[in-house]
Each structure stands twice: as C-alpha cells, then as structure tokens.
Amino acid sequence: MSLPVIAIIVAGASAVFTASNMFVSLATYRRGRPRVCMEAQWLPYIPVIGEHDGDTGFFLVHLVNKSQATVKVTRLYLRMEFERPLIPFTKRSDALSGLKIVKGDEEKEILPFGGVEWTIQTDQDSSRLVPHITRVKLTAILSNGTRVQSKWIRTPPQYVYTTQEMREAFDRYLAEREAQPQQLSLDDLGD
C-alpha cells in the first residue's frame, strides 16, 4: 500500500467519526429542547366553585413537560372564532382574550418530565359571547418564545344534564330497547 492510499483511508475514517459525532450532538440537542403538550377542556356554562363563586365558565388545562429542561410559561391567551363574522364581507371573525389562573399552582414553571393543572378563566366576562362562539384554542407562550397550542375545542351544548336526569334517560332507553321486536332464534320456531 502506498502512502497516498493510507492517507485516503485515514481521512475517510476521520470523516465517518466526525459525521457520527455530529449526529450524536444533534440528537442530544433535540432531546434536551423543551417539548410541552397541552390538553384543554372547555366548560362554559358551569360555575366555578371556590373563591371565585358566581363566575361562570372556565377551562381545565393540563400542561405536560416531556423534556429534560425546565419550562416557564410567560403568557396565556385564548383565540375565539365566531359563527357569523363581526366584520361584513369576511369569511369568519375571531378575537383574542387574555387568561387568568383561577385554581392551581400560581407558579408558571414546569419541572422536567412534570406537569401542571390549572383552572383558567378569561380576563373579561365573555359569557355573553358563548352562544356566538363556534370554537376556541388556547395558547401558552414559553420563556424561550415557543408557542404551545391546544387543539380546537368546539362549543359544547348549553344544557348540562344532572346525574339523575342521565339515569332517567338511560332507563327510558333500556325500556324502549326491550319493547322493540327481537330477532327470532331456532328455539322459538320449534314449537
């Protein structure tokens, strides 16, 4: 083997080790960056129980940190879409509203592989707008500028059933089901 061939083999091996080191560094960086998931539930017609008695409508928000870095939430806001545009000749209209934490940890820092649950309300009373809202989306802005958004949440029906009403409705359903004609079996045809 000549000297140039050995130099090419050594340079090739060095390039392979350098590329593998670069990929390991990239994987470590991607694993360490903040990854936060948000789940939200909207209860617009149910009153808040506790120190904010009388307020109606709230969001249950669950933020989960799936990374090794501590994450801090700096701001929360809500995007609402309306069924009819507020401005004529537009397809849809939407509005933004700030959010305040009603129940839960006031601290907005989420530890690595941890989570936090909040009960959240809008800054202004938006209960009069609820019948006109088609869907909402919550957004949390992290300290590094990353935006974490929930899925779109449709407006739930206005009437919320009590446990007794649900039980009575289920009993009526079972009674109607028993009254419906059933399929015959071979034993029924034997006589």
Integer average pLDDT = 78
List the total number of helices: 3
Report on the biggest sheet.
9 strands, antiparallel
Structural class call reads: alpha+beta
Beta-strand share of residues: 35-45%
- The helix content, as a percent range, equals 25-40%
Along the chain, the helix and strand elements come as HEEEEEEEEEHH
- What's the CATH first level? Mainly Beta
Residue stretches low in confidence (pLDDT < 50, at least 5 long) are none
Q: In CATH terms, what is the fold-level topology?
A: Immunoglobulin-like
Describe it for me?
Strand 7 and strand 8 form a beta hairpin. Strands 1, 2, 3, 4, 5, 6, 7, 8 and 9 form a nine-stranded antiparallel beta sheet that branches. The protein is built from three helices and nine strands; from the N terminus they run H-E-E-E-E-E-E-E-E-E-H-H. Helix content is 27%, strand content 37%. It has a single domain, classed as Immunoglobulin-like, CATH 2.60.40. 12% of the residues are buried. The longest helix has 30 residues, at 3-32. The model has no long low-confidence stretch (mean pLDDT 78). It is extended and about 95 Å long. By secondary structure, it is α+β, with helices and mostly antiparallel strands.
